[in-house]
Amino acid sequence: MNVLEDVRLEREFTVSPQVLFDYVSTPEGLLQWWGPEGLSVPEHDLDFSRKGPWFSVMVNPEGQRFKVSGHVTHVDPPKSVGFTWAWHDDADTRGFESHVTMTVTATDRGAHLVIDHTGLPDAEAAENHTKGWTSSLRKLERLAG
């Protein structure tokens, strides 16, 4: 029996909760930090400000494509967004589905972000997602300090 794995990452920012929420929910905000460092996002429907489907295609410098998609499950501005997450294989078939929640709370200095990525299939997937989210969050930290 597989035990599902969860990942939790937390960061502090010196921007208001509304500004941070815009970074994690709007296409304009997400595209500034979405995807690990060194990857571009040439194709996407990244909009977590409304329920419904989303996808992004990340491309590395060698031209490899990494497609991920899901469905926005909840939007509670300026507090949280939730969405399903599944990688696609080379034949564009969706794989194992997990769930991500991004929660924004006010702090004395700005805003606090928690990313909970739950229901990952195994420890290796959890480790890979931790690395990917950590790299992406470094980009967001440069933007929103």
UniProtKB/TrEMBL annotation:
Transmembrane segments: none annotated. It comes from the Bacteria. Gene3D superfamilies: 3.30.530.20. Residues 15-144 form the Activator of Hsp90 ATPase homologue 1/2-like C-terminal domain. Belongs to the AHA1 family. InterPro entries: ASHA1/2-like_C (IPR013538), START-like_dom_sf (IPR023393). This is Uncharacterized protein YndB with AHSA1/START domain. It holds the Pfam family AHSA1.
